[in-house]
């Protein structure tokens, strides 16, 4: 029967789960669409490296910008997985778990632009540069850069369509479908960053329009403003001559009738 390790390898090996478009669409092995995301390579420094950042930044995203929005978080993972799967045949990548991890790192970095980080105490940088620093470190460990670059492409696509594009146009193309939201009821709804940005942009636009309308309604010369003040004072104090009231308030002598 052999050792437990040999028995385990006889049941499942990386060859049973890796991404292969021919086996998926020609042989019907559709489980490879999902299983390839769960293999991160053999145990080693690169494996520990990706596991650490998967746990750290996946948790940070879920407890940060996706707090109270589990449906949106799942939708991000589904969109990222679909995009990576569609690109995988063109770049010959068999396992996409590391790319999905880098996608989350990229999104976290762009949503925390002013967070200062340090790499092994050697140099400091801000969060948006984190994926590039990790990419350089991964290459130093002997890994292929295309795995991490693919994740950065997916992360940038999601960040632009979810955070940047809605602020520019007022439309949110990656809005989470209702059937996914129904699976994750939200006790305390928290607006995503894109919606908050759109509402703030609309509020600023409305305030600017109101200021322009007020400037257009104001009279052009000082005499018109004086008449407006006299009318308001007379409405508040009908028994008092508005001209005398205005002159006393401004330290001037009233005009004689």
Short synopsis of the structure:
The protein is mainly α and 257 residues long. The protein has 13 helices and 2 strands.
Can you offer a commentary on this structure?
By secondary structure, the protein is mostly helical. The protein has helices at 4-11, 14-17, 21-25, 32-35, 45-63, 70-91, 97-111, 130-140, 145-169, 178-181, 193-217, 222-236, 242-249, and strands at 116-119, 123-126. A two-stranded antiparallel sheet has the order 1-2. A hairpin with a 3-residue loop joins strand 1 (116-119) and strand 2. The protein starts with a helix and ends in an 8-residue tail after the last helix. The mean pLDDT is 76.
- First-residue to last-residue Cα separation: 119 Å
- Label the overall shape: elongated
Q: How do the helices and strands follow one another from N- to C-terminus? A: HHHHHHHEEHHHHHH
Largest sheet: 2 strands, antiparallel
Strand order of the largest sheet: 1-2
For the residues shown, what is the average pLDDT? 76
Approximate strand percentage: under 5%
SS-based structural class?
A: mainly alpha
How many helices in DSSP terms?
13
Number of strands: 2
Low-confidence stretches: none
Helix content: 55-70%
Radius of gyration: 31 Å
């Amino acid at each position: 029967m052999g050792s437990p390790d040999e028995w385990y390898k006889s049941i499942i090996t990386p060859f049973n789960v890796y991404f292969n478009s021919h086996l998926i669409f020609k042989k019907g092995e559709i489980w490879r669409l999902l299983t390839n995301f769960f293999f991160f390579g053999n145990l080693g420094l690169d494996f520990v490296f990706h596991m650490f950042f998967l746990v750290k930044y996946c948790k940070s995203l879920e407890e940060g910008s996706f707090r109270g929005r589990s449906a949106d978080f799942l939708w991000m993972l589904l969109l990222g997985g679909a995009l990576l799967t569609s690109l995988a045949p063109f770049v010959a990548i068999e396992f996409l778990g590391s790319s999905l991890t880098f996608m989350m790192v990229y999104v976290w970095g762009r949503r925390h632009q002013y967070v200062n980080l340090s790499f092994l105490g050697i140099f400091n940088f801000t969060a948006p540069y984190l994926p590039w620093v990790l990419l350089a470190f991964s290459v130093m460990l002997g890994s292929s850069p295309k795995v991490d670059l693919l994740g950065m492409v997916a992360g940038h696509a999601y960040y632009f369509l979810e955070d940047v594009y809605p602020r520019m146009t007022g439309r949110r193309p990656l809005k989470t479908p209702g059937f996914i939201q129904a699976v994750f009821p939200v006790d305390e709804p928290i607006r995503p960053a894109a919606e908050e940005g759109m509402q703030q942009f609309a509020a600023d636009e409305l305030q600017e329009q109101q200021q322009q309308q007020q400037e257009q309604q104001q009279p052009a010369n000082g005499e018109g403003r004086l008449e407006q003040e006299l009318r308001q004072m007379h409405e508040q104090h009908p028994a008092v001559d508005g001209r005398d009231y205005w002159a006393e308030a401004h330290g001037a002598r009233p005009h004689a009738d």
